[in-house]
Design goal:
Elements (H helix, E strand, L loop, with lengths): L6 H20 L11 H18 L7 H22 L7 H22 L2 H8 L4
Helix pairs in contact: 1-2, 2-3, 2-4, 3-4
Length: 127
C-alpha cells in the first residue's frame, strides 16, 4: 500500500465498497426491474470503480494482483449465486462484464488515475 496519512479512511472505504459489491451480488430481498442488458453496465461500472479505487492505493507494480483479486471476487460472486438457489443465477456474461470493468479500470489507472489517493490524502485534515 502507498504511504498514506489517513490509511484507516482508505481501508474503511475499501471494506465498504467490497462489502457493497458482495451484498449487491448476493442479496435476494430487492427485486427491482432492470432494463434488458443494463445489468451488464452495472457490472462493468462496479468493477471499473473497484479497479480505480484500489489502483489509487497501491503502486503500479501491484496492479496485476489487484486485477487478479477483482476477477476472483467477480467469479466467486457468480459461484455464490449459482450455489444459493434463491432466485439469483450465475451468468458467464456477468463475469465477462466484470472483466471488462477491471480491464478498463486498469487502463484508466495506467493512463491517468493511478495513485490518486496521495493527492486526496494530502487535502484531508492533518492528523
Amino acid at each position: 500500500m502507498l504511504e498514506l496519512r489517513h490509511r484507516w479512511i482508505w481501508l474503511t472505504g475499501s471494506a465498504v465498497l467490497v462489502l457493497g459489491v458482495i451484498w449487491g451480488s448476493l442479496q435476494v430481498s430487492v427485486d427491482l426491474p432492470v432494463p434488458s442488458g443494463f445489468d451488464k453496465v452495472e457490472h462493468v461500472g462496479s468493477y471499473l470503480i473497484l479497479a480505480v479505487w484500489f489502483t489509487g492505493m497501491y503502486p503500479r507494480a501491484r496492479y496485476w494482483a489487484i486485477a487478479l483479486a477483482l476477477l476472483l471476487l467477480g467469479a466467486s460472486m457468480e459461484i455464490g449465486q449459482y450455489l444459493m438457489h434463491l432466485g439469483r443465477t450465475a451468468d458467464i456474461y456477468d463475469m465477462a462484464a466484470n472483466a471488462v470493468g477491471v480491464a478498463l479500470g486498469m487502463l484508466l489507472a495506467i493512463v491517468a488515475t493511478g495513485g490518486w489517493t496521495r493527492k486526496v490524502d494530502a487535502w484531508l485534515i492533518p492528523n
